[in-house]
Design a protein that fits this description.
Blueprint: H1 5-22, H2 27-34, H3 38-51, H4 70-74, H5 76-82, H6 96-107, H7 113-122, H8 139-148, H9 150-153
Helix pairs in contact: 1-2, 1-3, 2-3, 6-7
InterPro entries: Cro/C1-type_HTH, Homeodomain-like_sf, InsJ-like_HTH, WH-like_DNA-bd_sf, Winged_HTH_dom
Organism: Ktedonospora formicarum
Protein name: HTH cro/C1-type domain-containing protein
C-alpha cells in the first residue's frame, strides 16, 4: 500500500519543489507557487542537497518502541497455556486484567489491561470476560422470583393509556 494518501501529496509537493529549484526557480517563487512558507522550501532543499530526491520521500511514522521484545511477545501463548491458576487466579478464564498481571510476573513489564487485549488479538487469540456469580446462587429461587414476583413489579399500563 505504501505511505498514506496524506503523505503522498506532501511527498509530491516536495518533489515538485525540488524540480522547480533544479529548473532555476528561487525559493520565494517556489513557496508562492506551492502555497507554503519559504522556511519549508528551505528545509526541503537542504534535505534534497544532503540526500537527493530519495530524502524527499514520505517516511511512515515509527511509533513507540514496544515494551515487550518480539521474542517475548511470541511467548505470550505459552503464558496463556500455563493457565490462569499458575499466576494466582481462580479458574481457567483469561481476561485482559489477568493477562496484564501475568505479563508483569513473567517479563517484568507493565501493560495497561486494554493493551493486553490488543497484544492477544495481534497473535490471533481472544480473551474472555468471566461471568461472576455468587457461589451461594440458588437457581430455583431466582426462577420462582422471576415468574411470581417480577410480573407484579413491572409497570402496568395506566387506564388512560388507551385513549
Amino acid at each position: 500500500m505504501g505511505a498514506p494518501k496524506k503523505a503522498d501529496w506532501r511527498e509530491e509537493r516536495r518533489k515538485r519543489a525540488w524540480e522547480l529549484k533544479q529548473a532555476g526557480w528561487k525559493q520565494k517563487e517556489i513557496a508562492e507557487a506551492l502555497g507554503v512558507t519559504e522556511g519549508a522550501v528551505s528545509q526541503w532543499m537542504k534535505r534534497g542537497r544532503e540526500g537527493g530526491e530519495e530524502a524527499l520521500k514520505a517516511k511512515p511514522a515509527n511509533g513507540a518502541t514496544p515494551r515487550l521484545r518480539a521474542d517475548q511477545q511470541a511467548r505470550i501463548p505459552h503464558v496463556l497455556a500455563k493457565g490462569a491458576p499458575a499466576y494466582g487466579f481462580c479458574g481457567e478464564v483469561w481476561n485482559s486484567r489477568r493477562l496484564a498481571v501475568a505479563i508483569k510476573q513473567e517479563f517484568g513489564v507493565s501493560y495497561h489491561p486494554d493493551h493486553c487485549g490488543y497484544l492477544v488479538r495481534k497473535l490471533g487469540y481472544s480473551l474472555q470476560k468471566p461471568v461472576e456469580r455468587a457461589t451461594q446462587r440458588n437457581e430455583q429461587a431466582i426462577e420462582y422470583w422471576k415468574t411470581h414476583h417480577w410480573p407484579m413489579l413491572k409497570k402496568k399500563p395506566s387506564r388512560n393509556s388507551g385513549r
